[in-house]
Amino acid sequence: MLTSYARKWQQMRPLPTIPGAFPLVGHSLMMKSNGREFFQQIIHYTKNYQHQPLLKLWLGTMPVVAIYKAENVEVILTSSKQIDKSYMYKFLEPWLGLGLLTSTGNKWRSRRKMLTPTFHFTILEDFLDVMNEQANILVHKLEKHVNQGAFNCFFYITLCALDIICETAMGKNIGAQSNDDSEYVRAVYRMSDSIHRRMKAPWLWLDFLFLMCKEGREHKRSLEVLHNFTNNVIAKRTSEMRRDEEHRSADKDSSSSKNKRRAFLDLLLNVTDDEGNTLSHEDVREEVDTFMFEGHDTTAAAINWSLYLLGSYPEVQKQVDSELEEVFGKSDRPATLEDLKKLKYLECVIKESLRLFPSVPLFARNLNEDCEVGGYKIVKGSQVIIIPYALHRDPRYFPNPEEFQPKRFFPENLQGRHPYAYVPFSAGPRNCIGQKFAIMEEKSILSCILRHFWVESNQKREELGLAGELILRPTNGIWIKLKRRNANES
């Protein structure tokens, strides 16, 4: 082991690095444990070394290479060989198993091929009713803040996204917006926090040590709640589908399930691979739990950041207002898929928000073989961290990168931009399979909020307290004021 480490140390020596690494512990003693301070530290390093194509760190005996230049990001993300997620993703496996996010190799390729059709736009259209209903509940919850003082909207949006993901993933309305103290909701948040804390604490990486401590025991209890909930939903839906099939066989004219909404779960229970094999109960649970994990926090963060930026740039919000007026007039009818397609400027707002505040601020790959990036050899077994937060601020592609300018995403302004300069949903073979779903949900919720309210932000950017955890989170929340939309017209 020491020989392997010494060999890697020697092979990686030419790569640009930060001074202060020690043998065996590397830069670990320098790294901040607090999520907010750690993220600021990483961003500070990428700024100081922006003239370099990449940056090497040692976390213990593990070489970690940060990349934040489009041409180097392309090398990693376009590779059909470098598709294994980082070692850190193993801490998601107790909850998510080896689903689409965490699996590798042939299992990932087969599963990706099976699941891609379930995110076709005609299927996503079935989910829009749920999004509209939950967005209206959110608007009702926000009413009490109209013409009042500033309030933190982050948790409101997150509960709305959780309700949407539960109903679209499992066909189960958990009513998180009405009951944020439900056992399942609490377990989701305890589990997410536990995973993040474990990732930052090397002494908790060994399973037997982790399970001996209080943190590990709480993790196990949350896991039981989450898996029991999903298992029960799958079993119930499987039974319903079997019963419906029997009714259809007995009565060709039966329409007992004709009007029932489809959920992601229904699609998983029917999907087959090239040999005609269906997914096992455990396979289905892996994908439902993965959809739950990936689909609520990330979307909620994107909506919150969009609201913050719109509230900070009233001239942009006025343009969104004009577009909403053009599409909906004074009507408060639910948005249709055609309506959402017409909201071109709002989509540019969302994309620019994701440029400045990508929901996933960094993600990583484990190198399966040696790889040349930016003129340097990175050895097999290294962890490569891609940092969209820094990548999206490259002035070569985004002049005045800290400015919020949705026009950057007008079609005429996309010409000549490097295709890997902007990767909020990753890119290449392991890009986010649910990105169309996410954009549709963000447009649905934002359009509903902005048709009712005018938003004013109550924080300067330096007051947000950015923390790059599993998602990019404002440790101080998102504080906004609301006014009645029509009352603001002048």
Automatic annotation (TrEMBL):
<keyword id="KW-0560">Oxidoreductase</keyword>
<dbReference type="InterPro" id="IPR036396">
    <property type="entry name" value="Cyt_P450_sf"/>
</dbReference>
<dbReference type="GO" id="GO:0005506">
    <property type="term" value="F:iron ion binding"/>
</dbReference>
<dbReference type="InterPro" id="IPR001128">
    <property type="entry name" value="Cyt_P450"/>
</dbReference>
<keyword id="KW-0408">Iron</keyword>
<keyword id="KW-0472">Membrane</keyword>
<dbReference type="Pfam" id="PF00067">
    <property type="entry name" value="p450"/>
</dbReference>
<comment type="similarity">
    <text>Belongs to the cytochrome P450 family.</text>
</comment>
<dbReference type="InterPro" id="IPR002401">
    <property type="entry name" value="Cyt_P450_E_grp-I"/>
</dbReference>
<dbReference type="GO" id="GO:0102033">
    <property type="term" value="F:long-chain fatty acid omega-hydroxylase activity"/>
</dbReference>
<feature type="binding site" description="axial binding residue">
    <location>
        <position position="432"/>
    </location>
    <ligand>
        <name>heme</name>
    </ligand>
</feature>
<dbReference type="GO" id="GO:0020037">
    <property type="term" value="F:heme binding"/>
</dbReference>
<keyword id="KW-0349">Heme</keyword>
<feature type="compositionally biased region" description="Basic and acidic residues">
    <location>
        <begin position="238"/>
        <end position="255"/>
    </location>
</feature>
<dbReference type="InterPro" id="IPR017972">
    <property type="entry name" value="Cyt_P450_CS"/>
</dbReference>
<keyword id="KW-0479">Metal-binding</keyword>
<comment type="pathway">
    <text>Lipid metabolism; fatty acid metabolism.</text>
</comment>
<keyword id="KW-0256">Endoplasmic reticulum</keyword>
<keyword id="KW-0503">Monooxygenase</keyword>
<comment type="function">
    <text>A cytochrome P450 monooxygenase involved in fatty acid metabolism in the eye. Catalyzes the omega-hydroxylation of polyunsaturated fatty acids (PUFAs) docosahexaenoate (DHA) and its precursor eicosapentaenoate (EPA), and may contribute to the homeostasis of these retinal PUFAs. Omega hydroxylates saturated fatty acids such as laurate, myristate and palmitate, the catalytic efficiency decreasing in the following order: myristate &gt; laurate &gt; palmitate (C14&gt;C12&gt;C16).</text>
</comment>
<dbReference type="GO" id="GO:0005789">
    <property type="term" value="C:endoplasmic reticulum membrane"/>
</dbReference>
<protein>
    <recommendedName>
        <fullName>Cytochrome P450 4V2</fullName>
        <ecNumber>1.14.14.79</ecNumber>
        <ecNumber>1.14.14.80</ecNumber>
    </recommendedName>
</protein>
<feature type="region of interest" description="Disordered">
    <location>
        <begin position="238"/>
        <end position="258"/>
    </location>
</feature>
<dbReference type="InterPro" id="IPR050196">
    <property type="entry name" value="Cytochrome_P450_Monoox"/>
</dbReference>
